[in-house]
Structures are given as structure tokens and as C-alpha cells.
Sequence to fold (241 residues):
Amino acid sequence: MRLLRGVAIVALLFAALTVLPVLLLRSLAPPTSAFMLEARLDALLSGDHAYRVRYEWVSLEQIAPHTALAVIASEDQQFPFHAGFDLHSIRESIRASAGGARLRGASTISQQVAKNLFLWNGRSFVRKALEAWLTVLLEALWPKERILETYLNVAQFGRGIYGVQAAAHVYFHEPASALTRQQSALLAAVLPNPLRLHVDRPSRYVESRREWILEQMRRLGGPAYLRTVEREAAARGPARP
Fold:
């Protein structure tokens, strides 16, 4: 009986420690993220005193619709419809791996927000379990629009460059609201690995990926596709605070 009580207390504490920050960040702009803090610590430990974080939060309304669409086209085309996990992509990834192909990632935008905002780099079972739990919380407690807004603000686009506002200033010398289709697709093209793929020095791979993203944006129907996100957000509950 004492053991069960202890387990219950631990479970309640864990729930409180994870639910509370998710609830708070539903309406508050995160001052930083776990990934930003980890990168800053790595730079400090390596003696890189020149390292600095560029990060400026902007609302979804202050981001060009092309950019939001480019990220969805690149990272998670089922974003408006799934509940945090793209089961079809997971099955396809497992099937391809069983056939001898390299196991590829199938992380959704929701999963990436959970990871970037709250967790650390790594592939341990504990981290993946926490990521799954936090993804469930985000999908339950945040509208889809808020998840997309947060991803666009905390995703990394280069060393020390977080969010589309900082990326737009660094690479194109303009705000995120002014980004074009081509610029948006180029930013989205480096998201798989922003430390090896470069916006300012795009490789042939990045350029070909940019063209693929532009084609996917057209197939999704252009910025009008974002109304699907809005409809799904409205269907899931009241508008965000």
C-alpha cells in the first residue's frame, strides 16, 4: 500500500512538472528553449566566447504565410490532421528499414516542438518516451496554430540562429513577414540538419530540396492550405489566449 501511494505521488509530481510549463507556454512566448540552452552550454564548455544566440519571437500573423506553408510542406504535410504522430509515415519508415533502407525519421512538427522546447539531443528510450508524452500534452492543450507558431519561432536555421525572424534578418536582412516563396523554401530546406546545411551557401542538395519544397507547396494549394490549420484549431476548442 505504501509503495502504491509512493508511485501515485511520483506520478502526480511528474504530471504537474510537465503539464504546468505546457499550460504556461500556451500563451506566453518562451524566453528560450532546451536546445538553445544546450547549445549555449556546449559553446561555453568548448571555450567558444564568440557564440551567441539570435532569437526573436514573433506571432504567426507576423510570419509570411509562404514560410509557414514551406515548413509544413517540408516537415509534416499531415500536420493539420494528425494528433501528434504521423502513423502512416512511421509505418512507411519501418517498412523501408525492414527492406534494408536506413531508418528515416518520421517526427511531426508537434514532436519537434516538444523536443526542441523541453528536451535534449539524443536517442535514448527515456528521451523518446518524454517526447511522446509532451507531444500528447501539446496536442491536448494547444491549438494547432500555437504549435505551428512555436515551431516557426524555435526551429534552428543555422548556428545560434533560432526562429524565422532571426533567420530572415541574418540571411535576407528583412523581417519574417516579408519572406518570399523562394526564401521560405530555402529556409525550410535546411531544417533536417541546420548545422551541416547552409542557407547562405546552399549545396546542390539544398537547392534541389528547395525546388522539391516549392513543388509540394504548389500541390498543397499554396497559402490557402493554412486555412486547414485554422479550421482544425477551431474544431479542437476555443482560440488560444
Notes: The mean pLDDT is 88. The longest strand covers residues 156-158. The two ends are 42 Å apart (CA to CA). The chain is about 60% helix and 5% strand.
